[in-house]
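ugh ok fine here u go
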Amino acid sequence: MKVRGAVIRSSPGPLEVAEMELEDPRPDEVQVKMVASGMCHSDDHHVTGDSPLDPCPFALGHEGAGIVTKAGPNSKGIAEGDHVVFSAIPSCGHCRWCATGRSNLCDLAAGILAGPRWTDGSYRLRLPDGQPVGQLCGISTFAEHTTASLDSVVKIDDDIPLDKACLIGCAVSTGWGSAVNVADVQPGDTVIVYGIGGLGASALQGARFAGAQNVIAVDPVAFKREQAPVFGATHAVASAEEASELARQFTDGQGADSAIVTVGVLGADHVRQAFGAVRKAGTAVITSIGPHDAVGAPISLHELTLHQKRLQGSLFGATNGNWDVRRLINLYRAGDLKLDEMITRTYSLDEVAQGYADLHAGKNIRGVVTFA
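structure:
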């Protein structure tokens, strides 16, 4: 079938809307009519070249939800008409990582930036001239319809609004999990979160739900500091220095129990600030992505050893898409997770470039593309 989707023809390169041919699903695949797709900064990293994709063209989008229109024979029993959320990281269920409870590290993730099916190297999308189009994360949710592997799809109840549920496919799982799973926030903790976009807002919620007493949001944009208390921040400041000083005041000079970095573009200084802000045996969690060729961070090697600090990367918040999508939806249904409030503005597919311009301008907690 013919579909329209947001594509980059080079990386770096501009995001544009193009018409493509979409294959029908094979066994253990589904075709989905997209309802909504969150606008994650990770997609913009491919536009800017911080995280280059090759070969292009690539159809972007990895945080989406929709309704199944066609389903091949599949072990999950997903059928036409089912409502689904896409998981940004696929889960095969049987590799070493899935089998040991770390499905966010599933071996299939090695193919999410490659473009074709990870089974046989074939492509589900092509331009009208026949040129193959890669699918970001194997799903490409910035398209009117998409075909994807069953490993990337989670069925949800029909009563959950898909334009809100789409956020769970990446931002909410990643941010929430960075606090709850990776930082292991405990009741009474003092936590710093740097960068209050979709990931940061979710990390704030995870920290508060886990029982943190002091949750300090850091963002230079006044609008985001004003919004931070909605998601659980007890304090909101403009600089890392202010946050570090507050954390010391709350902890008799020790420092934060954990610091979570969710800024748009990771730099070495963000790592330094987070590492320096945590107490002895504290954890600095790095969730953000920076330029692919950046190396090194100026942390204190003295503190690393003698203060027994931990510098920890976080992929997908160490969540399990097959389980945690449903768990987070249940928290949303119970009123314990705010999704509606995260969406600052919605955009049509043709407005996707404007959505990312607004992201750069700091105007949104989360922008969402909605499809008619």
